[in-house]
Sequence to fold (116 residues):
Amino acid sequence: MITLSLPWPPSVNHYYRRVGNATLISREGRRYRDRVAREVLKVGSPHVSGRLAVRIIASPPDSRRRDLDNLQKALLDALAKAGAYHDDSQIDRLLVERDRATPGGRVRVQVTEIHA
Fold:
């Protein structure tokens, strides 16, 4: 199992940018991926290759209304890019829970390999 405490991710609305005909990951999205990569390296680059269950406990930066589904894309892609697992397609179970607001926001993530 991998357990991480990560910064609040950019919403999917801020993760991508259109440049001409291309859709790119925004500067904010690239910075977030770099921060997640540093945190994953701290736990020893645990690369998991099997089927996965991911639990996300989201502590938003304030008490404004937020859609929890908007934080998943940046977070899960950043974890894959950081080498925590190959690809989001490995995830068979995804649980996202909202916790109390925390200044700056945080997400706690548990990635567990599911054994058949």
Notes: Strands lie at 2-7, 16-19, 22-25, 51-59, 91-98, 106-114. Residues 58 and 107 are 5 Å apart (CA to CA). The chain has three helices and six strands.
